[in-house]
Amino acid sequence: MEWRIEPGLTDYAHAVATMEARVAAIQDGSADELIWLVEHPPLYTAGTSAVPGELLEPSRFPVFASGRGGRYTYHGPGQRVVYVMVDLDRRGRDLRKFVAALEGWIVDACARLGITAFAVPGRVGVWVETLHGEAKVAAIGVRVRRWVSFHGFAINVAPDLAHFGGIVPCGLPDFAVASLRSLGSSAEMADVDDALAKCFPDWLRIPPVAA
Fold it and tell me: pTM of the prediction?
């Protein structure tokens, strides 16, 4: 499995094209699985369940139809986006277990950084407790093609949280969005990357041999 940290800001359309090509290569056996860590310039993405009325400011940033699951989300500087391209056929074709593994991975990485985070049944993503109630610190949106995954998750490290104001994030108007920085963490992107590497889940690391 390859682990790649992309420097600078990665164009979103380029990222999607790169994932599409890598997924095809994983499927035909010509490339390894890939965990790809990027940052994007400010933009909104629409998942396959996006509701047009939840895009509150369509002219604020570029908007991309992403093809991943979920609704509208924001990507931008200060947010670590992790694209996970793995062969789920070798892991039992269990989408629920895959999403749970991603949630657990994020929770463990946050704990390593001193942040208590948690998953909530029925609400995909990772959450934290704030003075004003629960807030989302990481969003998950995945896609699977012939049992190879792509897209992944985004952890709010220190983005401008005001930029989420142009959408209803993930279609959940009653919940705020938090970042590690807003929770009092001084963690930098390199610290987050290190925590993610050290907390990488065994279920993703060591796939069983396909029957």
Answer: 0.95
Active-site entry in 107, 119, 170, 177: 170
What confidence tens digit (pLDDT) does each residue in 103-138 have? 999 999 999 999 999 999 988 899 999 988 999 999
Catalytic-residue membership of 170: yes
d(CA 47, CA 142): 9
Q: Give helix 189-198 / helix 95-112 axis angle, nearest 10°.
A: 130
Estimate the share of the chain in helix, then strand, then coil, as percent rounded to the nearest 5. 30, 30, 40
Q: Which amino acid is at 42?
A: P
CATH number for the domain formed by residue range(s) 2-205: 3.30.930.10
Half-sphere exposure of 142 (CA within 13 A, CB side): 27
Lay out the sheet containing 63-65: strands in order across.
Answer: 63-65, 43-46, 72-75
Query: What residue has token string 């035909």?
Result: 28
* Three-class secondary structure of residue 23 per DSSP: helix
- Would you kindly state where each structural domain of the chain is located, as residue ranges? 2-205
Q: Which residues contact 192 (CB under 8 A, 6 or more apart)?
A: 80, 109, 113, 155, 157, 180
